[in-house]
């Protein structure tokens, strides 16, 4: 919280200082309506370098169009409110069509100076310089922005940690036996059993936490990408999208496991695989070993005796489908690793 307030205070001081410097430079250049340069600076500052540059480009084009329309309107109708009104109709319509809405207010303020002074050509250079000074300081303010790689690493590690917890919970559900105090998965950790109803509530809570962590990681990745406008590195964005796709599959796996009416012997095999995925779940794993292990599980299941009851048949069918979903989850990661290797 303290860092958040400090960041907000720093940004406020930065914007105020940039606006003051823009007004001071405009005044030093002897420009009329020098305070407008400060307002333009404030309106030009965006969240990232990429957004600032894109906005500046759009506003430059819009400003040229505004000057052209203003010259025609004032030339035909004189320097009257009616002329300014006609200009507004045409310019706003153009901005809506071209998606330059952010330029409407700023350019219209500049064009209104022609109306106040009752002239166009003598004031044209003044308005152009006001635009250049204001926009220039807006761009300079954002030049210091740097991508926050370390913050993304922390956020993505949090995402991975939550996914590992969910995988562990689903593994526990598959080996839980009524009346037992604990279960051991594949000789690994001793996993404590939850009370009836508790796993579902805990998993639902962690799923919401996971979705929130994904949103934070995505916001950071988007901001980092925006602050490196001359780089084509989309690793962070691709990583978040990959985890988002996996999260959708995890939700489906959880629903299938929760719907099991009984736990046949094959449930332990699936639980062991889930636990192995959990233990090896990290960003650099190409999952080739896990996919090979999964193929072994499929092959072993095909050699096992047929189910003896309808209930066992349905449960084994669900477990087989869970394995296929896990296979898809792993293939998503393998595809991501391969694409990263090609790009780099």
| Count of β-strands | 2
Counting DSSP H or I runs of 4 or more residues, the number of helices is 12
Question: What gyration radius follows from the Cα positions, in whole Å?
Answer: 30 Å
Low-confidence stretches: 177-203
| Run of helices and strands | HHHHHHHEEHHHHH
**Tell me about the biggest sheet?**
2 strands, antiparallel
Strand order of the largest sheet: 1-2
| Backbone structural class | mainly alpha
- Strand content is under 5%
Mean of the pLDDT scores?
Answer: 80
Give helix % range: over 70%
C-alpha termini separation? 37 Å
General shape: elongated
Describe the 3D structure.
The protein is an all-alpha fold and 344 residues long. The protein is 76% helix and 2% strand. It is built from twelve helices and two strands, in the order H-H-H-H-H-H-H-E-E-H-H-H-H-H. It has helices at 2-28, 35-44, 49-77, 81-98, 104-117, 121-141, 149-175, 198-226, 235-258, 266-279, 288-302, 310-343; strands spanning 182-184, 190-192. A two-stranded antiparallel sheet has the order 1-2. A hairpin with a 5-residue loop joins strand 1 and strand 2. Helix 1 runs antiparallel to helix 6. It is elongated and about 95 Å long. The two termini are 37 Å apart.
């Amino acid at each position: 919280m303290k860092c958040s307030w400090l960041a907000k205070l720093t940004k406020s001081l930065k914007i105020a200082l940039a606006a003051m410097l823009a007004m001071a430079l405009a005044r030093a250049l002897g420009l009329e309506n020098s305070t407008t340069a400060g307002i333009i600076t404030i309106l030009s500052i965006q969240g990232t370098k990429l957004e600032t540059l894109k906005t500046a480009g759009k506003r430059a084009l819009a400003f040229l169009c505004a000057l052209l329309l203003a010259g025609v309107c004032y030339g035909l109708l004189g320097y009257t409110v009616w002329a300014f009104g006609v200009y507004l109709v045409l310019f706003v319509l153009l901005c809506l069509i071209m998606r330059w809405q952010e330029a409407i207010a700023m350019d219209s303020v500049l064009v209104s100076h022609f109306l106040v002074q009752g002239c166009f050509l003598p004031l044209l250079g003044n308005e152009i310089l006001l635009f250049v000074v204001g926009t220039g300081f807006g761009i300079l303010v954002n030049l210091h922005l740097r991508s926050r790689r370390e913050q993304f690493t922390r956020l993505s590690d949090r995402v991975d940690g939550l996914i590992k917890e969910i995988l562990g919970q689903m593994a526990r559900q598959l080996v839980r036996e009524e009346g037992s105090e604990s279960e051991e998965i594949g000789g690994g950790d001793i996993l404590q059993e939850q009370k009836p109803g508790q796993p579902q509530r805990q998993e639902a809570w962690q799923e919401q936490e996971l979705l929130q962590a994904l949103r934070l990681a995505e916001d950071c990745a988007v901001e980092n990408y925006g602050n490196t406008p001359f780089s084509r590195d989309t690793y962070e964005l691709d990583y978040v999208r990959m985890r988002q796709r996996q999260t959708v599959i995890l939700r489906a796996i959880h629903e299938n496991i929760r719907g099991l009416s009984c736990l046949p012997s094959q449930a332990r095999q699936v639980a062991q695989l889930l636990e192995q995925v959990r233990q090896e779940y990290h960003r650099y794993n190409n999952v080739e070993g896990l996919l090979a292990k999964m193929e072994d599980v499929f092959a072993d299941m095909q050699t096992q005796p047929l189910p003896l009851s309808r209930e066992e048949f349905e449960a084994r069918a669900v477990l087989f489908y869970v394995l296929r979903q896990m296979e898809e989850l792993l293939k998503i990661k393998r595809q991501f690793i391969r694409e990263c290797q090609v790009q780099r």
